[in-house]
Each structure stands twice: as structure tokens, then as C-alpha cells.
Amino acid sequence: METSLARIKKDIGTIQKFTSTPGQGCTRFSYSIEDKKAKNYLIDEMISLGMDVKIDGVGNLRGTYKGQCENLPIILVGSHMDTVKHGGSFDGITGVIAALEVIRVLKENNINTKHTIGLIGFAEEEGSNFGATTLGSKVITGKIASSELKNIKNFEGKSYYEVLEESGLNPENIDKERLDKKDILGMLELHIEQSIVLDKNNLSIGIVKGIAGTRTYGVEIIGESNHAGATPMNMRKDALIAASEIISHVNDIVKENGLSTTVATVGKIECHPNVSNVIAEKVGFTIDIRDLDDYAMDRVLKEVINYSNRISDKYELKCNIRQITSFKGTKTCEKINNIIEDIVKSRGYSYCKMLSGAVHDSAVMAEITDVGMIFVPSKDGKSHVPEEYTSFEDIKRGSDVLLETLLKLDKI
Ligand SMILES: [Zn+2]
After folding, report:
1. pLDDT given at position 213
2. Helix, strand, or coil here: 230?
3. Whole-number pLDDT of residue 342
4. Of 299, 327, 355, which residue sits at a domain end?
5. pLDDT, position 132
């Protein structure tokens, strides 16, 4: 019993055409016309398998394939439907298609699982509309109340609530459509790796041990603007000099205070007035720290704060530090990981256990249920770009592992 490469290829080929930027990568934002078309295609496929299908109040695609015992908790399988702007054809949707394919295989082999299988295509994972990630899963796990949707605004200032209503959804339904802990046995997500580890080491499968948490902070150094020619070097309050000292020390801070898995990035910097012949008055930059281990992230963060204050004092500058986001690291379920590992070993697939540096809906789901994540390789480690690619052979291998994992989980 195995998944079909031809069907997976056809599904991905069909859905990648639903893009608002043809020829320039895949752009399929939640609540767009392309999103609706992709969902309609999947809904037709799901109905042909005898599944019950609905789109919930926040736009998550939800289907159920009935098991023998309706009073048992369901096994969820899926990923997200949306993309970033000019993204690729594999991020997210590969996991939704793999879930669909797994159910097709169950149907064609007349396998009646004990548990009902729930297929889920999460909405708004990427943060493309509202600048915040994993909103679809946060809403259905109760992390965001329906009343809060009126306060979340898109880039045009329209509220999430209004966007949902305009796209024909009913956000009022959300409160009764929540997923309850007791109704779910576990969640399985297949996803492309979005990094280079599997491809570089020629591995077929990544078993995700955990999803890194994030601490994102904004650092602002305030000095004094003055004439670049007339101000002596010893009388300056140059914010950019201090900022550059802090930024260039971040690597050492991670080495000295983090673990081998800790990463930190200064990816954004703003300089004011940003004029070639004026001493910088104000420099703001972000620091993004990630790891599975919360203590490691906190140690790095503490030292970044200490060091920023020390350097600012040295130059007699002001330093403000504020938190932008903070997510804790999430461990996946060890029992499910062991099941996946046994399957991968028995099939003779090359694999490794790894962390996910990127956030996923599974991290949100882990708060209410046991989760397992299977990674398949991303060619050259590229993702969120039009060149994003995963071979269909790799997707099939991952889907077969997903199928077998689901069947083993069903027998527990
Ligand atoms: Zn994704």
C-alpha cells in the first residue's frame, strides 16, 4: 500500500496555477480568489472520497474521513494553504496534498481506521495579510478569541473580522468551531524543510524533534546628530558607532551564551537621519533569537541587553530595548517521533532528527495535542522564493511515511 506519485504531482501542478503572480512564483494569500480556487479543487477531491468538508469561520479547510468509532478522538493531518508573496509551490500545500493522498490510499484499499481522520488546511499561516503568523491555528485552538479579530488589522487598516466577512465567512462561528483537546488524538504535519540540512547531506526525511521558539527584540540607540566635518571625534555621540559595535558582537554572544542550536540574526537596521555628512542621531535594529531551549534564548537575550547598555554607556548614549515577539520552543511528541523513526528505518530511507528553525502550525497545535512533523528536502535549502523545489519522489517518500505513521497511531 503506497501513495501515488502521479496523483501528488497532478495535485501540486493544479494548485500551483492558482497564483496572483503568474511567472513570478506562487502568491496565494488567504481569502484571495486564488485561495478560493485552490480550496474548491481540494473540496471536490475530498467530497469524491466521501469526506465531510467545511471551511470554518477563519477560513481553515476542514474535512473528516469517518472512522469506525465516532466517539474516539480524531487524528488530524495537514498543513497550511497560504503562501508568502512570490513564494514557492511547495511550502504548506505539500502537507495538505500529502494528507489528501493518504486518505485516498485508505479509501482505495478499503481501510476503515478506528479513529476518524481529520484533514486540515490552515489559513493565514504565513502572516501575509496581517503580519502575524499561524493565525488560523491560533484561532481554532482558542489562543485568539473571535472578539480579538476586530483589533487585528491588515496593511490597509481593515480588521481581520471584516476581511473574513467580506470573503463570505462567518467569524462568529469560530467560538463553537474550536478544536478541543479531548477530541484530538494527535496531529501529523508533512512540510518541506525550508533549509539546506537534508539536501546537503543527501537525506530523504527529517524527523522534527522540536520547533524553535523566538525572541524578537528591537534595540534603539539614541545619540546626537551633528556636522560630520565640524564635530571633533572625541565630542561625538554617534549612535551608529555604538550600534555597529553591538551588532558585530552578537555572534560572540551566541557562541558564549547559547547552545550549538541557538541562532541570532540582526536582519533590519534603520539609521536616522541616514545622511552621508551627518553623524547618526538614532539607530534602530532588530535582533531575532531562536532555539528550542528557552533558557539558551534567554541567556543570549540577557547578554544582548547587558552588552547594548554597556556600549551605550561607554559612548554616553541612550539605549531603549523593547520586545516585539516572544514564542517558546515547542517539543514534538517523542512517542510519535519514535514511530516515525521505526518506519523510516524499516524502509531504509536516509534520515536525521532535527529542529525546525521556522515556525509552523504544529507548534500551535502542540499546545492542545501530541504532534509529529515530517520534513522532506528543499533543493539548495531554498524556500519562500519562486525557485523553491522539492522532488516528487521525496514528497512521495514523505507521504508514505505519513501514511504508515497515521496507521500506527490509529492502532494505539
Ligand atoms: Zn510553511
Report:
1. 93
2. coil
3. 98
4. 327
5. 83
Q: How far does the centroid of ligand 1 lie from the alpha carbon of residue 160, in Å?
A: 21
pLDDT of residue 147: 86
| Location of C-alpha cell 508573496 | 85
Q: Are residues 123 and 262 in the same domain?
A: no
Using omega within 30 degrees of 0 as the cis cutoff, is the peptide bond preceding 273 cis?
Answer: yes
* H-assigned helices in 315-356: 334-347
Amino acid at 179: L
Domain that holds residue 87: 5-211+332-411
User: With 0-12 CB in 10 A as exposed, 13-18 as middle and 19+ as buried, what is 386?
Assistant: middle
pLDDT digits (tens, 9 = 90+) for 352-385: 999 998 889 999 999 999 999 999 999 999 999 9
Residue list, annotated binding site: 80, 91, 126, 191, 384
- pLDDT per position as a tens digit, 344-354: 999 999 999 99
Question: Looking at residue 156, what is its pLDDT?
Answer: 87
Binding residues for Zn(2+): 80, 91, 126, 191, 384
Q: Are 111 and 118 in contact (CB under 8 A)?
A: no
| 292 plus 372 within the same structural domain | no
Q: Which residues of the chain are under the pLDDT cut of 50?
A: none
What does the alpha-carbon distance between residue 221 and residue 280 come to, in Å, rounded to a whole number?
Answer: 10
- Together in a domain, 83 and 128: yes
Cα–ligand 1 centroid distance for 360 (angstroms): 6
79 and 132: one domain? yes
Same domain (yes/no): 111, 171? yes
Element (H, E) at 37: helix 33-48
Pair (190, 225) in one structural domain: no
Cα–ligand 1 centroid distance for 187 (angstroms): 15
Q: Are residues 101 and 196 in the same domain?
A: yes
Q: How many domains does the chain have?
A: 2
- Residue 327: the pLDDT is 84
CATH code, domain with 51: 3.40.630.10
Residues 47 and 20 in one domain: yes
